[in-house]
């Protein structure tokens, strides 16, 4: 067997990145068995890496993979162990991929009848599928991030600040419950979409955050932007959908100034920010306007305050304190509480920020941003040894090498200010 060539690996990686969620959805449509669908698809990718160097990358890689995966599903259903417990469905056949004997299943694609005006993106459609009310609400968003958007359990665990093994176990249990409960993998009617919107928005936001955090999935930043704007336009009367679209668009506007390397927000050159995206994000935020803003609208407002520095030349830290306090009441996440401590440290002094940071609780012990903020506040307060230890811990927890390098430079500057 020849080793896969670079073009073959690139084609397989590109297909996995762009089509993994849709392919899993099609394979799981018949029985809702996500684990088995993922196993079949993984086997198909393995076979592709073996066969494509010899036969060439097919014109339709997705079709090739789905046919091979369905063959595996067929073989499993026909196995002796499976025949004793599950009745065989009626099968239709289609030709196998080149070089493969036998026939392959061709079950109806659950997205074939999808109204393109209702749900114009198949990946978005599957997100709403995974938001089925029968699925435990605590696992819906992690399930979307893994099954639809292609992040592995360890990456999803990072987004939820839990141990990778814990998240992997939760995902396995969720998939088995979906299979055992026969939860249908069907696209909901348009009138049911608003009721499933919350976890979908969380998944899109998680996709954006993970794409920016050194996971090697920078392409997912733009995927998240596309999904957020698409769902906002689809559900035009949902303020939080527009809030998320504004949040991601405004954050994306600053991407050109984040690197190479890592440049913190308050040190970024505003001339490199994308003014067209800032205007677009501000328009989305206006569309989201409501007397009682939700979490994503408040977070978008935070982004708008930061982006205003391009016009004013300074950051309105008191406004940020007000927004973060509102967020702490509405969605007291670790990130919100840590960000509030950092903003209060800017306005009321580092000691006030440190007091708030101490109130965050045990969750901060393994939360990298908490250590980074603590290091900055301790350094500002003149507590050099404690600041150096906080910088060291923040660097250990950082997943992005560029962030680790930045923290190391900051620690050196604190330890040796005369060399700066």
Automatic annotation (TrEMBL):
RNA polymerase sigma-70 region domain boundaries: 20-81
InterPro entries: DUF6596, RNA_pol_sigma70_r2, RNA_pol_sigma_r2, RNA_pol_sigma_r3/r4-like
Domain of life: Bacteria
Name this polypeptide is given: RNA polymerase subunit sigma-70
Region (Disordered): 70-114
Family annotation (PANTHER family): BLL6612 PROTEIN, BLL6612 PROTEIN-RELATED
Gene3D superfamilies: 1.10.1740.10
Chain ranges of the DUF6596 domain: 196-288
Start-end of Basic residues biased regions: 71-81
Gene Ontology BP annotations: DNA-templated transcription initiation
GO molecular function annotations of the record: DNA-binding transcription factor activity
Pfam families on file: DUF6596, Sigma70_r2
């Amino acid at each position: 067997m020849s080793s896969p060539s670079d073009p073959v690996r690139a084609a397989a990686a590109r297909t996995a990145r762009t089509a993994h969620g849709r392919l899993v959805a099609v394979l799981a449509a018949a029985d809702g068995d996500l684990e088995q669908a993922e196993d079949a698809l993984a086997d198909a990718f393995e076979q592709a890496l073996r066969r494509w160097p010899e036969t060439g990358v097919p014109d339709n890689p997705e079709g090739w993979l789905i046919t091979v995966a369905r063959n595996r599903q067929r073989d499993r259903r026909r196995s002796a162990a499976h025949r004793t417990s599950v009745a065989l469905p009626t099968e239709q056949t289609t030709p196998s991929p080149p070089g493969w004997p036998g026939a392959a299943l061709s079950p109806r694609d659950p997205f074939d009848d999808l109204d393109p005006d209702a749900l114009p993106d198949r990946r978005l459609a599957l997100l709403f599928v995974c938001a089925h009310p029968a699925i435990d609400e605590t696992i819906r968003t992690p399930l979307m991030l893994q099954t639809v958007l292609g992040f592995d359990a360890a990456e999803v665990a990072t987004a939820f600040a839990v141990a990778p093994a814990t998240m992997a176990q939760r995902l396995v249990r969720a998939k088995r419950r979906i299979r055992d409960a026969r939860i249908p993998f069907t696209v909901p009617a348009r009138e049911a979409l608003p009721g499933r919107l919350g976890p979908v928005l969380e998944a899109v936001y998680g996709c954006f955050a993970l794409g920016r955090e050194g996971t090697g999935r920078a392409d997912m930043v733009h995927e998240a932007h596309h999904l957020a704007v698409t769902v906002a336009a689809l559900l035009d009367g949902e303020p939080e959908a527009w809030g998320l679209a504004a949040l991601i668009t405004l954050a994306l506007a600053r991407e050109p100034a984040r690197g190479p390397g890592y440049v913190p927000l308050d040190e970024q050159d505003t001339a490199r920010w994308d003014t067209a995206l800032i205007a677009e994000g501000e328009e989305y935020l206006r569309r989201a306007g409501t007397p009682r803003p939700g979490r994503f609208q408040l977070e978008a407002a935070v982004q708008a305050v930061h982006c205003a520095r391009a016009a004013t030349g300074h950051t309105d830290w008191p406004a940020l304190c007000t927004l973060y306090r509102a967020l702490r009441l509405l969605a007291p996440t670790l990130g919100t509480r840590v960000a509030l401590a950092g903003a209060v440290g800017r306005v009321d002094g580092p000691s006030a920020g440190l007091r708030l940071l101490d109130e965050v609780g045990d969750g901060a012990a393994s939360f990298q941003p908490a250590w980074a903020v603590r290091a900055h506040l301790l350094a500002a307060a003149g507590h050099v040894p404690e600041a150096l230890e906080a910088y060291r811990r923040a660097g250990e927890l950082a997943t992005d090498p560029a962030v680790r390098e930045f923290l190391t430079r900051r620690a050196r500057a604190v330890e040796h200010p005369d060399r700066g």
